[in-house]
Amino acid sequence: MTVVGRSYRISLPALAAASLVLVTTALVLVFFVAPTDADQGFSQRIFYFHVSIAFTSYLCFGLGAWKALVHLWKRDPNADLESYVGIHQGVIFGSLVLITGSIWARISWGHWWLWSENQLVLFLVLFLFYAAYFMLRFSLDAGPQRANLCAVYALFGVVLIPVSFLAIRLAQRFIHPVVFTRHGAAFGGWIMVTYLVSQAAMIVLAYTLYRIELSGKRLDVRLRELRRAYA
Amino acid sequence: MTNAEKYVTAAYCVVFAIVLLYVVIIALKLKRLEREVDDLSGRAEREPEDERESARVG
């Protein structure tokens, strides 16, 4: 299967510049503009990146599953690699969610981790499910069979995303804060502005890293094909 | 610096460090790919000369 490059509307340097500007703006807003939360105090400032990274990891897993579906449906030669890179980004951002969440839990609850919390455990299950994707992928030889198996696996995992997201809202007893309810966000003003900028920063950063990794992987595949042709 | 400030700083530093580590790993991989491209283009340049040499029989 030959992998060919796609042409994108936004160039990689423009994306990298946009992510740098957005991340810097987000950090300035988080530490110098957003007011200190009356209830949680300074530790609430972790929320801006923690929640943004969590939504971004859901998006990356969703993208990975979507590309897996495209692979199975249209047999697009690029889709398998795109699905793999999307899931890889999701796992990287997922590990950041677990680390920042644990740090926040340590300040607020006095524990690094609570097994009694559905939201935490379900996110960990989602993270481990997609981490196991790499074990599956690297245990098989490259080819159409591996691409199909990985696509099916990636599609199964997408079911866990809404379960993980809704767990906190469906739980009867929880201590993990809920900031997005059925009635909208539980905050406004500068907190909202800071959150939205942080969210945009994380999405653009993830997309930039996705594009960088994807171009590297495509180059790797094409070089391997060239090596085979030379051998 | 309060305890909360230390933890918040640590959280943001971890995010920065992991993203930086990821970029370094990707940069190293691209370096390896660049070496492979150089190797292949070197071979491609050498090969026509080899062919010419082997054709000189008489």
Describe this structure as you would to a colleague.
The complex is a heterodimer of chains A (231) and B (58). Chain A is mainly alpha-helical. Chain A has one domain. Chain A is 74% helix and 2% strand. A two-stranded antiparallel sheet of chain A has the order 1-2. In chain A, helix 4 packs antiparallel against helix 6. Chain A is globular. The relative contact order of chain A is 0.17. The model of chain A has no long low-confidence stretch (mean pLDDT 87). The N and C termini of chain B lie far apart (86 Å). The relative contact order of chain B is 0.06. The radius of gyration of chain B is 25 Å and the shape is rod-shaped. With 58 residues, chain B is mainly α. Chain B has a domain of 26 residues. Chain B contains 1 helix and no strands. The mean pLDDT of chain B is 82. At the A-B interface, helix 2, helix 3 and helix 7 of A face helix 1 of B.
- Major sheet of chain B, described briefly? none
User: Considering DSSP H and I runs of 4 or more, what fraction of the residues of chain B is helical?
Assistant: over 70%
Estimate the strand proportion of chain B: under 5%
The major beta sheet of chain A can be summarized as: 2 strands, antiparallel
Series of H and E elements of chain A: HHHHHHEEH
User: What portion of residues of chain A is helical?
Assistant: over 70%
The largest inter-chain interface, given as chain pair and residues per side, is: A-B, 30 and 23 residues
Averaged pLDDT of chain A: 87
**Total DSSP helices of chain B:** 1
Count, helices of chain A: 7
Secondary structure: number of strands of chain B: 0
- Shape annotation of chain B: rod-shaped
Radius of gyration of chain B: 25 Å
Search tags:
heterodimer, A: mainly alpha, globular, B: 58 residues, mainly alpha
